[in-house]
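User: Just a sanity check before I run the rest of the batch. Below are the structure tokens for the first item. I only need the designed sequence back.
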């Protein structure tokens, strides 16, 4: 008890220091929300030295957990001098030719390099028409690339090295807002944050959106991105599309390009709502909005002993409900989130703790610690890190403040536009990489796998029970998940989109350590592999189109009852498959090869092991059946 009290005191001391520094540095409050001026390298270094001097005056940290907590605090609750925004993801060696394309994380699931012969940056629909027409005439492969490129799989890669990538960077205008009709018309490159802000200025709201605002409208529609609710039309932005203009290849008689205007009631709109980018280029989107409203949020921690009985009812009780499950700590944090009358006092802000600018130095310390734990097999160390991480998230109210500055207690009430999404690391000014988004590949920061799988509500209870059985068999096996804020579980509803959700479901988001060495197994490799296979195959889960490792997409198209209707529209709009690629053909069931069978392939989720060589036998990892889901084949560490 004395040791626990000392550790909690360390957490509080750390948090007090971080908050003080946030208020003092540059005389600014929350630089991560309101960008600070860009600093010269010399001044930035001076600020860093001042910070380190302050750091040395802290009471000595006597435990590993305390040191980890302090590092997490530096990393997650302070923005030293602003933040370096993400780099461009299209890089060309000669003007706009000879290009490579990456995603926000700097690596695709198979670690391949995506190349294109040329990149173009249209600024209008007219320019877009000319680009598509010319490429169609030349029978040239095309892919659309967004500004932030947050999809994990290779959706933006054209086949071969002679393709064309079309950036939506400058197709970023708000075309029209109709207050009386409560609609907004936007171009595909408009960022989610801009959509939210512009709608709010007109007294309107898009009610449900992804929690990360660093997505473009075109990108989030194409991958089916969503928020969390079982209410109304559901949490997917694509279900609020009432009109969409999409540009597709065409024949010589139509000038090699054609603009389709699709409206509610048009069957083809159900294909275009979630298109994976294979139908053409979206040029304009009209969304149905609602009057701006306030919401009230409270995070409540409980034991996970009754979680399986709560999942089916909690989402029906609260409009924006979700929860974070920490299996290794046997606890769950429920997000009690509802609309309230606009007269309710409160001006709260949600600036998600994990999406703020993070100090590069602290990120390197965290990554180095986890690399060391993985290399030495120090599971207990990962569990200590996990407790420290979740303590920080909870103590900082996950990024909520009652007035945009301080968190003083629940509930936090504020307008929807200030509470529904976050990502302050994306918009701050350049600070020479002193602070970055935590996953920025330019620094030695977070490098992880990201899995998102939707499981039918009717099956969710049994899935949670199975995961609990794994925890009982291997108590330290899921500390690695808790380290990344546990399992985020959101609610999603059935959609009319052909490639949208098939039924009301729980969306399971899992983030976990990925080694820079593709041949290096993880601690308790088998536990996470079993959960992944259990979700996808035993419970028939649908993978998020913009996340996941290769194996999650095995035979995925067979799970969609309207897959044939989608493929008919694809053939109609792009008969030459100019907007398709090897990857999209594979996930749509048009070509084999979604798994890549080679030495160590199971470690990266490129395959399901069937032989020991698919794991890491020289390091003691062998292909074995699962512990709970016996049909799973996973890489197990066997000791002699």
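Assistant: Here's the designed sequence for the first item:
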């Amino acid at each position: 008890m004395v040791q626990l009290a000392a550790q909690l005191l360390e957490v509080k001391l750390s948090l007090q220091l971080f908050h003080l520094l946030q208020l003092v540095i540059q005389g600014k409050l929350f630089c991560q929300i309101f960008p600070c001026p860009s600093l010269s390298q010399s001044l930035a270094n001076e600020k860093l030295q001042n910070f380190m001097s302050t750091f040395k005056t802290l009471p000595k940290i006597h435990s590993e957990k305390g040191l980890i907590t302090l590092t997490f605090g530096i990393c997650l609750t302070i923005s030293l001098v602003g933040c370096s925004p993400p780099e461009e993801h299209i890089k060309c060696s000669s003007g706009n030719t000879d290009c490579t394309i990456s995603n926000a994380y700097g690596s695709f699931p198979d670690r391949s390099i995506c190349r294109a012969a040329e990149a173009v940056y249209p600024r209008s629909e007219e320019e877009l028409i000319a680009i598509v027409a010319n490429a169609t005439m030349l029978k040239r492969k095309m892919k659309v690339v967004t500004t932030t490129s947050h999809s994990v799989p290779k959706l933006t890669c054209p086949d071969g090295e002679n393709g064309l990538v079309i950036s939506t960077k400058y197709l970023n205008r708000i075309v029209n807002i109709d207050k009386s009709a409560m609609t907004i018309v936007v171009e595909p490159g408009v960022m989610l944050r801009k959509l939210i802000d512009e709608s709010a200025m007109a007294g309107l709201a898009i009610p449900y959106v992804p929690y990360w605002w660093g997505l473009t409208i075109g990108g989030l529609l194409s991958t089916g991105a969503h928020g969390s609710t079982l209410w109304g039309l559901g949490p997917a932005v694509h279900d609020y599309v009432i009109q969409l203009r999409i540009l597709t290849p065409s024949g010589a008689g139509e000038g090699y390009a054609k603009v389709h205007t699709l409206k509610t009631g048009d069957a083809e709109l159900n294909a275009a709502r979630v298109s994976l980018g294979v139908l053409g280029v979206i040029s304009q989107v009209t969304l149905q909005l609602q009057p701006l409203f306030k919401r009230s949020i409270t995070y409540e921690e409980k034991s996970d002993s009754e979680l399986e009985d709560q999942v089916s009812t909690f989402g029906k009780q609260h409009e924006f409900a979700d929860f974070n499950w920490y299996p290794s700590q046997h606890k769950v944090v429920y997000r009690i989130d509802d609309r309230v009358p606009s007269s309710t006092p409160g001006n709260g802000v949600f600036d998600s703790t994990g999406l703020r600018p993070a100090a590069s130095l602290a990120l390197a310390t965290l990554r180095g610690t986890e690399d060391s734990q993985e290399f030495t097999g120090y599971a207990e160390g990962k569990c200590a890190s996990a407790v420290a991480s979740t303590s920080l998230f909870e103590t900082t109210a996950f990024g909520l403040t009652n007035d945009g500055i301080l968190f003083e207690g629940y509930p936090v009430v504020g307008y929807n536009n200030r509470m529904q999404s976050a990502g302050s690391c994306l918009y701050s000014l350049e600070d020479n990489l002193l602070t970055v988004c935590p996953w920025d590949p330019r620094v030695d920061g977070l490098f992880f796998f990201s899995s998102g799988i939707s499981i039918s509500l009717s099956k969710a209870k049994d899935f949670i029970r199975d995961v609990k059985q794994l925890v009982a068999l291997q108590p330290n096996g899921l500390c690695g998940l808790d380290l990344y804020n546990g399992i985020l579980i959101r609610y999603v509803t059935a959609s009319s989109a052909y490639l949208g959700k098939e039924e009301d479901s729980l969306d399971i988001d899992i983030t976990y350590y990925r080694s820079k060495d593709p041949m290096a197994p993880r601690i308790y490799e088998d536990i996470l592999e079993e959960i992944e296979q259990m979700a996808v195959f035993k419970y028939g889960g649908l993978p998020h189109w913009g996340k996941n490792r290769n194996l999650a997409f095995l035979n995925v198209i067979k799970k969609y009852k309207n897959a044939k209707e989608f493929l008919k529209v694809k053939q109609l709009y792009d008969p030459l498959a100019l907007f398709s690629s090897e990857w999209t053909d594979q996930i749509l069931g048009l070509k084999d090869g979604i798994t890549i069978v080679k030495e160590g392939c199971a470690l990266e989720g490129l395959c399901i092991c069937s032989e020991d060589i698919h794991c890491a036998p020289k390091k003691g990892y062998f292909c074995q059946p699962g512990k709970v889901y016996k049909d799973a084949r996973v890489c197990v560490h066997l000791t002699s």
